[in-house]
Specification:
Layout lengths: L1 E7 L4 E8 L8 H13 L3 E12 L1 H17 L4 E6 L4 H7 L9 E5 L8 H4 L5 H21 L7 E5 L5 H10 L3 E6 L2 H13 L5 E5 L12 E7 L8 H11 E12 L5 E3 L2 H17 L10 H7 L3 E11 L5 H23 L3 H19 L4 E12 L3
Parallel strand pairs: 2-3, 3-4, 4-5, 6-7, 6-9, 7-8, 9-10
Antiparallel strand pairs: 1-2, 10-13, 11-13, 12-13
């Protein structure tokens, strides 16, 4: 049995991790003492976070049930919320039994809504366009990655891997000794496995996981990537904390993010600029920051990284077939001006002008004398040795 228990006063949260498989309830003295201490300190809601429990036997469950029931009885004004994760499939089913002990006990599946706007961005219809995006960014990133420290033979983790095409390209180009690809969206992972199969690429480990609470040991990877993802989480610092943890000392973490208001095009520049400024505001409404790109250096420094490297590149309508660029923009319009704008409650007049900017961006991309661009910021940091 190997588990840790810690009470976080800032969040009124009792955090459990590891394996709780005692032979007898007497083996759980550390948990019992910390639980009772937390109950004594908390007014309002005590969160019991079991997201990182990978094993939990019946002896432990009955002891927890006894303590939770006792706390609910002795301190009736206290609410107890058990925080589980769908990444560990049994946890929600197991702990939901506790809710029968008292109306003041609840179970919250933390990653049912992993990030604001998840139901929009994980729509299966958005998956195909992601391959086009990666194809257009890869022509830049394959040259950029070595400048940020990626070498053949490294152990690599691709966190928030999406549909897995980037992992496949890294596998083929850089031949890592190990490549783990993690994502929270089951449709994306299913697609990722199919992509690897289609390309005949073997050896990529695909895992369903919560990027803010990874079930991965410390100091495992030489190079960790997280692309276009920090910008869609309302607490990117939590993701970076995990990326830092799983990276080996001396290894590097590589992130890419955007600044959507800097998307550009000619002709019809003014309409395009207005729409992408509104895109940034729309994402902010859902607690996402698609302006994060230039802020990446600060985030990496705050997370504890040093030797920060940073650069930017522009995906343009001249990078191959302009229709590919146009297809990306059309997909953005369908999602942003469709489901997201409607969900925010935008009126018809706004939506009409909003959509026009996307159409003008497409016009610029396809115009024989036009030009359209989508800027991306790359940053990486070293975990101090």
């Amino acid at each position: 049995m190997s588990f840790t228990v810690r009470y976080d006063d800032n969040n009124q949260e009792l955090q459990l991790a590891g394996s709780m498989s005692p032979q007898a309830s007497g083996d759980l003295g550390d948990f019992r003492n910390e639980f009772l201490r937390a109950v004594g300190l908390v007014d309002g809601t005590l969160y019991v976070n079991v997201k990182k429990l990978v094993r939990f036997n019946n002896v432990a469950f009955h002891e927890m049930a006894r303590l939770v029931a006792g706390a609910s009885r002795d301190k009736p004004q206290l609410r107890i919320a058990v925080v589980t994760s769908s990444v560990v499939g049994w946890s929600a089913r197991k702990f939901r039994a506790l809710t029968r002990l008292s109306p003041n006990i609840s179970v919250e599946d933390y990653d049912t809504q992993f990030y604001p706007g998840q139901d929009v961005l994980e729509d299966g219809g958005f998956i195909p366009i992601l391959r086009t995006q990666t194809r257009m960014t890869w022509r830049h990133e394959r040259e950029i990655l070595p400048r940020h420290g990626l070498r053949a033979g490294m152990a690599v983790a691709d966190i928030c891997c999406g549909i897995g095409d980037f992992a496949v390209l890294v596998s083929k180009e850089f031949k890592p000794s190990r490549l783990l690809a993690v994502d929270h969206a089951k449709p994306s992972l299913a697609y990722a496995r199919q992509v690897a199969s289609d390309f005949g690429v073997k050896g990529i480990e695909y895992a369903y996981g919560d990027a803010a609470s990874l079930l991965i040991e410390d100091n495992q990877f030489d190079f960790v990537t997280c692309r276009h993802s920090l910008q869609i989480f309302n607490k990117p610092e939590l993701i970076l904390k995990e990326l830092f943890r799983i990276c080996k000392p001396g290894g590097r973490v590589y992130v890419t993010n955007e600044k959507n208001s800097h998307c550009l095009g000619e002709p019809r520049a003014e309409s395009i600029q207005w729409t992408y400024t509104e895109v940034a505001k729309l994402f902010a409404h859902f607690d996402m920051d698609v302006e994060l790109g230039p802020k990446s250096r600060r985030y990496l420094l705050d997370a504890g990284f040093d030797e920060i490297a940073m650069e930017s590149f522009m995906v343009t309508s001249l990078d191959g077939d302009p229709q590919d660029f146009a297809d990306i923009i059309q997909a953005w319009e369908d999602v942003y001006a469709g489901k997201m704008s409607v969900e925010r409650g935008d009126d018809a007049a706004f939506n009409k002008r909003f959509r026009q900017g996307f159409q003008d961006h497409i016009f610029a991309a396809l115009h024989p004398r036009g030009y359209a661009g989508w800027p991306i910021w790359v940053a990486s940091g070293r975990k101090p040795a």
